[in-house]
Design brief:
Bound molecules: 4'-deoxy-4'-aminopyridoxal-5'-phosphate
Structural class: alpha/beta
Mean pLDDT: 97
Number of strands: 13
Radius of gyration: 21 Å
Shape: globular
Strand order of the largest sheet: 2-8-7-6-5-3-4
Order of helices and strands: EHHHEHEHEEHEEEHHHEEHEEEH
Low-confidence stretches: none
Strand content: 5-15%
Number of helices: 11
Largest sheet: 7 strands, mixed
């Protein structure tokens, strides 16, 4: 660190993304990417003309893409916010709806086991983080979020949760919204297309609801960096205020074109989601047959614990055999690993390699 670094940020513990090693070709089941390429329409949209137009700034309002998203999801463009990956939106939301410092009484509430970026955002923006333990079975108890007091701030819940893949029902989310009229309730739906219920239909009724989604997982576009959010117009305006105070051109021209094309190929997207869900069921059953405990997942990953082998050991041995999965060396979950659902062939190789590992111990 240089001597010039802002002292308030010098102790920041940054987010650790999943490893992206370049030393050899791995079967990558560690960062919840899609095993399938973007749709042919997306590939066609990112064409030579679009590349030539890179000399021009992109539309800071992303009007065409907002319009396409609004039409696809049955809302108005004023209900849509776009940014450079949903991480960017989460960052803006923490700053806008929970920032301001402890004197404001605003805090951020989220589960103790969830997406690892939330505590990074609270540290970054000096927000008091109230981490609420999951139950022993790793589920979220909605009642824990229904008596938090009248302070402002934000509740942030990933649904499905990461890395567990477990879900809350729409009814449970509605209970949380009703109990917290003075807090924004952000529902992070990065994995919603793989089998959970979206909270989007509730935005009309609840001014405190912010639903965040992404093109990274179900639409095979992690590398394009495109996140989107839905809420009533006033919350969207607040996010626009932050965007136009940081990076007005946050959606680049290629991503913009790719996003519009992806929405025009919706059947390709839903077929991929179905295939991933089918492969998830097959993989879960195969792991259970090998003695694993596997949580019921509504995401494009499984959270699984081997019998008689530590999570770290499974991770290490699979890596040595050319397969990357995600291990979190953290209290309560160190025995588990998160395994992204790849193609059926990739998952068959995974199961074969796990069988070998079990044989070798
Ligand atoms: N939310 C959750 C729960 C995630 O797991 C991820 C992926 N790491 C994100 C948000 C961010 O995804 P992206 O920035 O690629 O849209």
């Amino acid at each position: 660190m240089s001597k010039f670094m802002n002292p308030a940020l010098s102790g920041l513990e940054t987010y650790t993304p999943g490893e992206q090693p370049q030393d050899m070709k791995y079967i990558k089941l560690n960062t919840n990417e899609s095993p399938y390429p973007p749709s042919p329409q997306v590939l066609a949209a990112v064409n030579a003309q679009e590349a030539a137009d890179l000399r021009l700034y992109s539309d800071p309002e992303s009007r065409a893409l907002k319009q396409a998203l609004a039409a696809r999801y049955g809302v108005e463009p004023e209900n849509v916010f776009l940014s450079n990956g949903s991480d960017d939106i989460l960052n803006f939301a923490f700053l806008a709806f929970a920032g301001g410092g402890p004197d404001t009484g605003r805090k951020a509430w989220f589960p103790d086991i969830t997406y690892g970026f939330y505590p990074v955002f609270t540290d970054l923006h000096h927000i008091v983080a109230m981490q609420i333990p999951l139950k022993d079975d790793f589920t979220i108890d909605p009642a824990d979020y229904c008596s938090l007091g009248a302070d402002g701030g934000m509740i942030c819940i990933a649904n499905p949760n990461a890395p567990t893949g477990l879900t809350l029902s729409l009814k449970q989310i509605e209970g949380i919204l009703k109990a917290n009229p003075d807090k924004v309730v952000l529902i992070d739906e990065a994995y919603v297309d793989f089998g959970a219920q979206s909270a989007l239909p509730l935005i009309r009724q609840y001014e405190n609801l912010l639903v965040v989604q992404t093109f990274s997982k179900s639409r095979s576009m992690a590398g394009a960096r495109l996140g989107f959010a839905f809420a009533q117009a006033a919350l969207i305006e607040d996010l626009e205020t932050i965007k136009f105070s940081t990076n007005p051109y946050n959606i680049n021209r290629l991503t913009n074109a790719a996003g519009i094309a992806a929405l025009a190929s919706d059947s390709y997207f839903s077929e991929n989601c179905s295939r991933i869900m089918e492969t998830r069921s097959w993989t879960k059953a195969a792991l259970e047959e090998l003695g694993f405990t596997v949580l019921p997942s509504a995401a494009n990953f499984l959270f699984a614990r081997a019998a008689g082998l530590s999570g770290m050991e499974v991770y290490r041995q699979l890596k040595a055999k050319g397969i990357l999965i995600r291990h979190f060396e953290k209290p309560r979950i160190a025995d588990f690993n998160r395994i992204t659902i790849g193609t059926r062939e990739e998952m068959e190789t995974l199961i074969e390699k796990i069988r070998e590992i079990i044989r070798e111990v």
